[in-house]
Amino acid sequence: MTATPHSGNPTGAPLRLSNQAMAFVLAGGRGSRLEELTDRRAKPAVHFGGKSRIIDFPLSNALNSGIRKMAVATQYKAHSLIRHMQRGWGFFRAERNEYLDILPASQRVAENKWYLGTADAVTQNIDIVDDYDVKYVIVLAGDHVYKMDYEIMLRQHVETDADVTVGCLTVPREEATGFGVMHVDEQGRIVDFLEKPADPPGMPDDPDMALASMGIYVFDWAFLRELLLADAEDTSSSHDFGHDLIPAIVKGGSAYAHRFSESCVMSGLETEPYWRDVGTIDSFWRANIDLTEFIPALDMYDNAWPIWTYAELVPPAKFIHDDEKRRGQAIQSLVSGNCIISGAEVHNSLLFTGGRVHSYASLDHVVSLPYVDVARGARLSKCVLDNRVRIPEGLVAGEDPEEDAKWFRRTADGVVLITQPMLDRRAAALE
């Protein structure tokens, strides 16, 4: 189905539905499972992939899909997130009918009322969405890594005349127990919504697989607006899309599932749809390290679907010293600009902007966030190094589980998270 041309379209050419849509990005959550990585920043502001932040993925998907009206709702420790969007996403021009609004929780409804839930974050900004004058609203989570063309999902929404269309991952049934799962009929209509079921229902065409919610929803704005106003008056509601609004529509309206495999963007190198919730230290480490593979599961080099971000103006990476035991080198690694590998060895690692790795140090399967300094002789393996950490000379981490756990956060999978407060406590204890 093609969009009906607006009367203001003199050529009569069909308009993309994305031209009539806005993206409302929910980016207020801390992401507490990332532990100390989110002590000073919201989860969507966490760095990913060498140059980007997690928020860049849903925003880039919207922009690449043709959506030019966006709003980002923030709440928890939003300064770094807001600063990033101001620096990297300030190219929208109102004279071209383009907008990106940042909507911090600002007691707009009552002095003691912050965003009470995902739906309430939209409810409190109804007047702002009204000003966009859009027909469709796409509600997006701001904390997942994936590439998706929302235009395809919009078209399905219109073709099925749905009240809501829910973006869904296709996952093995045994892995779906941690998700909200859609039970659908043969036409893709959702007949039941189950939150983290012990026995997830299979898909009609593949009983061994289940449809898990991605936290992506498409609504007609007129319908959603009335739904939000009614929900705001319901004192028993938690004012959340997944817990309240979507189950209510499934019971009394028309809800359809949209399979991510139908709208995911793959460059040709990617062999299967890629979506990651990098919400734990282990999953964050793994998703970043996976990018160092010869053919990574996520193609960050796809110029046809770029991941837009704030790009600092920095000098190139540099590798210095070429002695037998003091050679600056990086093997199967991603090294960002303004990094200097000085007589050190880096293997299967990802270094963000501004890193320094000094002589005789070695990094193996390390994710190093921006402006980390690794002193001489340090030996690190399977680590995540927080922003601006100063690794002391000769530190060994990632080899002795008991020693690691004494000073740092070590996960069940053996990933070691190192932050500056941890190093400061260690230094004080060893004095």
UniProtKB/TrEMBL annotation:
Pathway recorded for this protein: Glycan biosynthesis; glycogen biosynthesis
Gene Ontology biological-process annotations: glycogen biosynthetic process
Keywords: ATP-binding, Carbohydrate metabolism, Glycogen biosynthesis, Glycogen metabolism, Nucleotide-binding, Nucleotidyltransferase, Transferase
InterPro entries, alphabetized: ADP-Glc_PPase (IPR011831), ADP_Glu_pyroP_CS (IPR005836), GlgC_bac (IPR023049), GlmU/GlgC-like_hexapep (IPR056818), NTP_transferase_dom (IPR005835), Nucleotide-diphossugar_trans (IPR029044), Trimer_LpxA-like_sf (IPR011004)
List of residues binding alpha-D-glucose 1-phosphate: 115, 180, 195-196, 213
Subunit and interaction comment: Homotetramer.
Name of the gene encoding the protein in the UniProt record: glgC
Nucleotidyltransferase found in the keyword field: yes
Recorded family membership: Belongs to the bacterial/plant glucose-1-phosphate adenylyltransferase family.
PANTHER family named in the record: GLUCOSE-1-PHOSPHATE ADENYLYLTRANSFERASE (PTHR43523:SF2), GLUCOSE-1-PHOSPHATE ADENYLYLTRANSFERASE-RELATED (PTHR43523)
PROSITE patterns: ADP_GLC_PYROPHOSPH_1 (PS00808), ADP_GLC_PYROPHOSPH_2 (PS00809)
Annotated site (Could play a key role in the communication between the regulatory and the substrate sites): 75, 114
Catalytic activity: alpha-D-glucose 1-phosphate + ATP + H(+) = ADP-alpha-D-glucose + diphosphate
Protein name per Swiss-Prot or TrEMBL: Glucose-1-phosphate adenylyltransferase
The keyword Ligase is assigned to this record: no
Function comment: Involved in the biosynthesis of ADP-glucose, a building block required for the elongation reactions to produce glycogen. Catalyzes the reaction between ATP and alpha-D-glucose 1-phosphate (G1P) to produce pyrophosphate and ADP-Glc.
One Pfam family named in its UniProt record: NTP_transferase
